[in-house]
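Repro:
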Amino acid sequence: MKLFSTPTVLFLLLFSTISTSQNAVKDSIMLKKIYTAALTEGKSYEWLDYLSNEIGSRLSGSIEAETAVKYTEAQLNELGLDKVWLQPVMVPRWTRGFKEYAYIETLTGEKTITEICALGGSVPTPNLGLKAEVVEVHGIEELASLGEEKLAGKIVFFNRPMDASLINTFEAYGGCVDQRYSGAAEAGKYGAVGVIVRSMNLRLDDLPHAGAMSYGDTPVNMRIPAAAISTNGAEYLSSLLKLQPNLMFYFKQNCKTYDDVLSHNVIGEITGSTNPNEFMIVGGHLDSWDLADGSHDDGAGCVQSMEVLRLFKKIGYKPKHSIRVVLFMNEENGLRGGKKYAEEVKRTGEKHLFALESDAGGFTPRGFSFQTNEANFKKVQSWQALFKPYLIHYFEKGHGGADIGPLEGNIDVLAGLRPDSQRYFDHHHAANDIFEHVNKRELELGAASMASLVYLFDMYGTK
């Protein structure tokens, strides 16, 4: 065992303190460069404008989705990255068909048209539509208590709202999204003929919100149609049912599922200067639902991720590790892109250290959530002072992201950008998720925050 004299120990401590202080100054200067470049010479808003207004909605398997693949590949090539390529992935193809139609019919025959949309993956109604009495429930667990006697031949109306008392709106979403995803599969077990689900939205409006649903292992011939109803429609239907429990609900939808089709993840890379075989990735999902152009979900995350690599090129930063941007395909109704990327990482044995995802909208960034060990989390916490001038304060353990989630177990850190979430579910999967609802400066701040975190992990590595 080597012993050090007291003067030697004091010198080492002093040297360490000076070195840490010098690093903090250097890092502070670098973050300032990143934020300045993003806010004064950013490209993310311009890219999003094209994705949203020239290409539009990008449902997996659609022509628009493939157009977006070609467009983003071309933009990454223009950045002069070391590598740009397309990673093949088979994705589901589901189409909505003609706009859905629904009405509530009272016992006296009065009809009130209400706004609905088919849930992604749903089967269609019969050609002439579906009309039946409605049974309101507030969760899947209520189905068993009602049983086949009260549910057979009925339309089940799932009406559990998002919990408005929760500050974290993603927590509120998670508390009721099971009725959208599994409601049809579960209601069908009791002989229900259709499902109507309250939209996942804290605001009362007339916009139905789409989203994925699953029939699980339900045989194809036993699957029942499922649709979302707007929050205003859900409130009205619930109120009317209290007065007329035997009223009728009619809806018609024309959706169809086809065979899987070929699509791609879009990947670009800056090769690391000292650790080229160690990878850090940043990404979002390129697909969107078909009711709008998907500007917040997740066009914003895609262009912010592209901007990270552009900012490094712009300010002349040469990363130590190889930095990739990955634009995943099919997050919304299958997660095929994220799973495919993780499969290839495992197959090739590539060493991935860090992954950052943006899939919570283009609103004002508040910070990040991290899936990692305590040592890496303490490292992150030591960087908080660097982000304080940019009002980034949220550094918590939590979910990284859906598309990077399949990398868990083969990576040191999974992280997610966390913007202010209060307005996100006003737009999520709805017809108002459009370009005009994205603020340019908020979008650019998010991109700069992401680039700053990637820079710090690139500089100091993971544990």
